[in-house]
Design goal:
single chain, 1290 residues, mainly alpha, 0% strand, elongated, repeat, cell division, mitosis, ARM-type_fold
Length: 1290
């Protein structure tokens, strides 16, 4: 056989003689004996001979029988299996066989056979099965040549043959034989044009027609499409439209499979499918809005790869990601964040501002998992691009907002949010593992670049951590005391407080109790914890302590230890990981560099002045939380240097730092003391008001001989007071006020003469300068006259003086309250000489109202504040000036939320329902929610509070509110539907918040209170029928609202409510009041909320004047009460004479400015809105300007009705009472004929404040469209219309 093989190997096609000679041998070699020979080597030699025979006799084979040809080629195919073992001695012969077959294309002979497909399938399967990584390139090339010739020269590729190729692409086979996959890949690339129709037909059968039986590979179609696309997209030219069809399938799972496939096709790095096939791309994007959740989820996951591999498609994806970022499914919102953050971390340029905005929004998601992912993602971006500056300044600028946003989240109520912000701050914003200098530099410039709200949040964060440290310190102190029942109760309360500062407070309580037990048993653990919270603990020591405590509590047998995790949370919150003495020293050095101009301020993006001021503010905050860390001569020397700087804010902050940290200066640092004292004296006498305040407090806090020091300031200042130079009065008044408050025993008496002779008589009761009559209701701080600023400080001095004394033995508080009330009644113009400007009057009204509120915080003064004075104070929240309302509401909320003010003051918020500005109403509602939640929480946490329910339980505000509304000057006619509707709105403003939950059957309790009030009389005027009628009417409105809003109010009240005796008389035994004070028709009108009927111009606004008795005339009271009231009565006539000129001078009754919203207590600088042109246009055109809720033309006959009403009210009250117009409500129009009469006739006076205009949708915002009144049809024929224009301009 070897000889035969050699013979045929050497023979070529041209030797015809030899061909004839060896023909019988060739035929003999195809006999069954050779084809089925048991010897493997013989079979190999025969196969080589047969291959050569096909080569020699080509193109015609010597075998004519089709069956014989089939047997021969199947025999040769079987021999090709020997290619598998490259180390076999016979491998070269197998290779020769393959090479011969490939070169001659011998298998092409089979095309003539009917069942040639069986041969080809067997050949392809054999070749794909034998190929392995030991084969060289030549073996692969010959295999490819052999198979590609069959594919390309045949009539088509059958499904079975296609399967034999494609099966090598599915993942399972691909992983088993990588070389077979590579071979199939190259084969498909080589035959793409020929095989593409066959592939298209296969996918058409499976995808479109659903004939899965056509192939065993039907279940792998999507895997195959992915692999084919990766090999050559042209293989799928006809398949892609079929995928678009599948994307719209009704079967969610099928859509999911197609989406997964297309996600890979569109997202792969080198794919240009999205640009090549836009219809398919758009159809795929539509799946982002699929109804099937897994489909949307898969679409979102794809976006990450797409953003990273195809940034050009970001624009297409943005809109869809926006919608998905609001998806109802938590997992999808979560994955949108992961998608954007992953791309952003790869390269910030891959995500646009809009995409980052979606993540920003999700930091406020309702689900914790989503919020956490968004916050952590943003924190990682900030650290990468801002702290490490990995992509330059532009990238850092792009994400510079992140620090502010993350800190703003600290305002959220959730403890989880707060804890995560603290963790982010410690790990990402100012990494605690940095070296001290680097860490402080990071904190220094971070603080300087934060926005005001973020600064407040950061300050609050330190404050909360410090508070928790103090709780733990108090807990450790309790451990040192002997065991007792009181000690155990105190310890339990402390543990509950600590648990509230940890995640999941319910579970935390158990863990905290367990930790407390461990502390009690383990003295070493206690000492470690004491070291951790000691003021002298350094950051490095804190790190060691935390690790040591965690090690002691760890349980090796318990890999997940919730108890240990909770303790770690606690330790992380109380450990001083950022601030210690070394850190403060580093901060001070940084600030010194900024002062010297050698710091990198500009490079860090802040100006030196900003850096210095922010640095001092930072140190000031830290001086509250870490005062011990400041105690070094070096630090205090730097602060003394700041005191000498011209920047007032810097000096003020430096004084405050001394005040907070300087307790040991006197004993330990005498040199600093001797330098500091004259500076503080100078600041107290001639510094800014804020500096003076801090200087006085600093002296009081850190010096043992404070009485001597304060006297050295008090005496020269009290002697040098001069009202003729008001600009030099402000600082002395501040200093004197604070001195008298801090040292009342020493200075209360000398201050009394200062108050009587100078403050009241010389300063407050005199107007030395004339204010600017510009019509503005508010002016920026720098435009306020020095005299008015001095008067404001004088009012504050009175309050501080009284707060220092804390008693009313000298009746000074009564006199002060009468003075403040008179100021409110006179609308800020106490002297009533009309010399003071409107904006200055607003300042003084605010000061007077705030002063009464401040005095009410002291129990001894609260008792003597009369209901009338309380009502006057309450009306400030409805002042005509937006800023007065805003600042007063903020002060009110601040005092209530700290439980400093009595509960009745919360009723004032009910009047906010009348505020024309939406933002103010919203703010008031938030204040109510906060106050009510704090009071309820306080009652829960303090068992002793049950004894004080009358002053704490929020529901007890209802009687105060009813009484206040009954005495609202706007409520003059108990049966007037419009006035009742206003009362109902005020009641519901409060009741809506109170009735959110029916805690302890509170609805029935409030109903019972309202019913009980009807069984009493108004203690303010018990014998006056109209006052009592108004009170009962408001009760009926309240009952109407409660009954309509709650089905639970008819249950029995859990307890009988107690009514405040200051406002209501005791119920009389025989008194029964079952009368309904509002008719059924009125009740329906109030509840249906139908709009008010269109009124005439005369009824657009509520009445300016209200009939009734003169306020402040009390049958019982102090001796001086009548004299004050008589002064008010006699002076009211002067006001009436100048009334019309003053009103016309001011123009429209509205702020002529649109101020920036004031955040702090002190009004911020405002910028005017350019609406002066509008006002001048109104005047020029003669259009009537009405700032009420409605603007309608006056109907005929209304003037007469109004005239009669006015005449009647004059007759009732008599001519002896001076005229006093209710400011803030535009005057009702009157016929010309009645004008002179009304000027001559005195109107009844009205308590309170000029109220806000009724249509201020934004502060001071007056639009031309709203300003115009309806056209006057015929001004020549209607003189009354012209008169109305004049009235409206007042």
């Amino acid at each position: 056989m070897m000889m035969v093989v050699k013979t045929f190997m050497d023979m070529d096609q041209d030797s015809e003689d030899e061909k004839q000679q060896y023909l019988p041998l060739a035929l003999h070699l195809a006999s069954e004996f050779f084809l089925r020979n048991p010897n493997k080597d013989v079979r190999l030699l025969v196969a080589c001979c047969l291959a050569d025979i096909f080569r020699i006799y080509a193109p015609e084979a010597p075998y004519t029988s089709h069956d014989k040809l089939k047997d021969i080629f199947l025999f040769i195919t079987r021999q090709l299996k020997g290619l598998e073992d490259t180390k076999s001695p016979q491998f070269n012969r197998y290779f020769y066989l393959l090479e011969n077959l490939a070169w001659v294309k011998s298998y092409n002979i089979c095309f003539e056979l009917e069942d040639c497909n069986d041969i080809f399938i067997q050949l392809f399967r054999t070749l794909f099965s034998v190929i392995n990584n030991s084969h060289n390139q030549k073996v692969q090339m010959h295999m490819l040549d052999l198979m590609s010739s069959i594919i390309m020269e045949g009539d088509g590729v059958t499904q079975e043959l296609l399967d034999s190729i494609l099966i090598n692409l599915i993942p399972a086979h691909k992983n088993l034989n990588k070389q077979a996959f590579d071979l199939a890949k190259v084969l498909l690339k080589r035959t793409v044009q020929t095989i593409e129709p066959c592939i298209a037909n296969f996918f058409n059968q499976v995808l479109v027609l659903g004939k899965s039986s056509v192939s065993d590979l039907s279940e792998h179609v999507f895997d195959l499409i992915q692999e084919l696309f990766a090999i050559d997209p042209h293989l799928l030219l006809s398949v892609m439209p079929q995928l678009e069809f599948k994307l719209k399938s009704n079967d969610g799972e099928e859509r999911l499979a197609v989406v997964r496939l297309l996600a890979k096709l569109f997202g792969s790095k080198d794919s240009d499918l999205a640009t090549q096939n836009r219809p398919l791309w758009q159809c795929f994007l539509g799946r982002f809005n699929d109804i099937h959740v897994p489909v949307r989820l898969e679409s979102v996951k794809f976006a990450s790869h797409c953003l990273m591999n195809h940034p050009d498609l970001a624009k297409d994806l943005t809109e869809y990601l926006k919608v998905r970022s609001h998806d109802p499914e938590e997992a999808i919102r979560h994955d949108v964040i992961v998608t954007i953050i992953t791309a952003g971390k790869r390269d910030l340029s891959l995500v646009n501002d809009q995409l980052l905005g979606f993540v920003r929004e999700r930091t406020l998601d309702k689900r914790w998992r989503v919020r956490k992912e968004a916050m952590m993602g943003l924190a990682q971006l900030y650290k990468k691009y801002c702290l490490h500056a990995e992509a330059g300044k532009d990238a850092a600028e792009k994400v510079s907002w992140i620090k502010d946003k993350l800190l703003h989240i600290y305002y959220q109520n959730s403890i989880d949010d707060k804890l995560l912000v603290e963790k982010i701050f410690a790990q990402y914003l100012v990494p605690h593992n940095l070296e001290t200098e680097e860490r402080m530099k990071c904190l220094y410039y971070l603080y300087a670049s934060l926005d005001p709200n973020a600064v407040k949040a950061l300050n609050e964060m330190w404050k909360c951590q410090n508070m928790l440290r103090s709780h733990v310190r108090e807990l450790l102190d309790l451990h040192k005391q002997p065991t007792s029942e009181a000690n155990s109760a105190a310890m339990f309360g402390k543990l509950m407080t600590i648990a509230k500062n940890l995640p999941d407070p319910g579970k935390a309580q158990d863990f905290v109790k367990k930790f407390n037990q461990v502390l009690g048993d383990d003295e070493k653990l206690r000492s470690q914890l004491e070291l951790l919270i000691s003021p002298t603990c350094s950051c490095k020591q804190a790190d060691v302590c935390v690790r040591e405590i965690a090690r002691k509590l760890a349980n090796p047998k318990q890999p997940t230890n919730p108890f240990l995790e909770m303790v770690k949370f606690l330790l992380e919150r109380i450990a001083p990981v950022h601030i210690d003495s070394e850190a403060i020293s580093a901060l001070v050095k940084l600030m010194n560099k900024s002062i010297e101009g050698t710091a990198d301020d500009e490079e860090e993006g802040v100006s030196p002045d900003t850096a210095i001021r922010a640095g001092l503010e930072l140190l000031k905050v830290l001086s509250f939380t870490h005062p011990t860390s400041f105690h070094s001569a070096e630090t205090y020397e730097s602060l003394l240097q700041c005191l000498r700087m011209e920047d007032d804010k810097v000096a003020e902050a430096a004084i405050q730092i001394f005040r907070n940290t300087g307790h040991k200066i006197e004993t330990d640092l005498p040199q600093i003391r001797s330098t500091l004292i004259p500076i503080l004296h100078q600041k107290a006498k001639r510094g800014t008001p804020h500096q003076a305040k801090q200087a006085v407090h600093c002296i009081h806090a850190i010096f043992s001989n404070k009485e001597v020091q304060l006297a050295q300031i008090f005496e020269p200042l009290s002697r040098s007071l001069n009202a003729d130079v008001p600009e030099q009065l402000i600082t002395p008044l501040v200093s004197l006020g604070h001195i008298s408050m801090l040292a009342p025993d020493q200075f209360a008496s000398p201050m009394k003469s200062v108050v009587a002779n100078f403050i009241v008589k010389d300063l407050l009761m005199n107007d030395r300068s004339t204010g600017e009559k510009n019509g503005k209701l508010w002016s920026p701080d720098e435009e306020v006259s020095p005299e008015v600023l001095a008067k404001v400080q004088a009012i504050k001095l009175l309050v501080r003086w009284l707060l220092g004394m804390k008693n009313n033995q000298s009746k000074s508080a009564n006199s002060t309250l009468r003075l403040l009330s008179a100021m409110l009644v006179s609308e800020g113009d106490l002297t009533e000489q009309k010399r003071i400007s409107k904006s200055d009057m607003s300042r003084l009204r605010l000061a007077a109202g705030s002063a009464i509120m401040k005095l009410a915080q002291e129990p001894c003064y609260h008792e003597i504040i009369t209901p009338e004075q309380f009502q006057l104070c309450a009306l400030v929240i409805n002042d005509e000036c937006y800023q007065v309302r805003q600042i007063f509401a903020q002060k009110l909320h601040k005092a209530l939320v700290k439980l400093l003010l009595p509960l009745e003051y919360m009723a004032i918020f009910a009047l906010c329902a009348k505020d024309p500005v939406k933002e103010r109403r919203a703010h008031a509602r938030q204040c109510l929610l906060k106050n009510i939640s704090i009071r309820r929480e306080y009652i829960k946490q303090n068992p002793m509070a049950n004894e004080k329910l009358l002053s704490l339980l929020p529901e007890y505000v209802v009687p105060y509110m009813i009484h206040l509304l009954a005495h609202d000057p706007d409520f003059t006619k108990p049966q007037d539907v419009d006035q009742l509707r206003d009362v109902k709105e005020c009641l519901w403003f409060m009741l809506e918040v109170l009735m959110t939950k029916n805690e302890n059957n509170s609805h029935a309790f409030m109903k019972k209170m309202s019913e009980n009030i009807k069984l009493t009389r108004d203690a303010q005027s018990p014998d006056e029928p109209k006052a009592n009628e108004k009170l009962y009417t408001v009760c009926d409105v309240a009952l109407c609202v409660i009954n309509s809003k709650s089905a639970l109010c008819n249950a029995d009240s859990p307890k009988d409510p107690v009514l405040p005796t200051k406002f209501f008389t005791q119920p009389e035994k025989d008194f029964c009041n079952d009368r309904n004070y509002i008719s059924e028709e009125t009740r329906v009108l109030l509840l249906t909320g139908k709009p008010k009927p269109t009124g005439v111009l005369g009824t657009v606004n509520k009445p300016l004047s209200a009939t009734g008795r003169r306020p402040y005339i009390r049958t019982t009271g102090s001796e001086t009460g009548s004299s004050v009231n008589s002064e008010l009565s006699s002076s009211a006539g002067n006001r009436s004479r100048e009334q019309s000129s003053d009103i016309s001078e001011t123009g429209v009754s509205e702020n002529d400015e649109n101020p920036v919203r004031i955040i702090s207590v002190t009004p911020a600088k405002t910028e005017p809105v350019k609406n002066k042109e509008i006002n001048s246009d109104q005047t020029t055109q003669g259009n009537s300007t009405e700032r009420g809720k409605k603007r309608t033309a006056t109907a005929s006959g209304t003037e007469n009705i109004h005239q009669k009403t006015e005449e009647k009210s004059v007759e009732e009250t008599g001519p002896s009472l001076a005229a006093k117009t209710r400011r803030g409500r535009p005057t009702k129009p009157e016929p010309q004929g009645t004008t002179a009469k009304n000027e001559e006739t005195n109107k009844p006076p009205v308590r309170g404040r000029k109220r806000a205009a009724a249509n201020q949708e934004s502060p001071g915002n007056l639009e031309a469209g709203n300003a115009k009144a309806p056209k006057q049809q015929d001004t020549a024929k209607k003189p009354a219309a012209a008169q109305r224009q004049i009235d409206l301009q007042r």
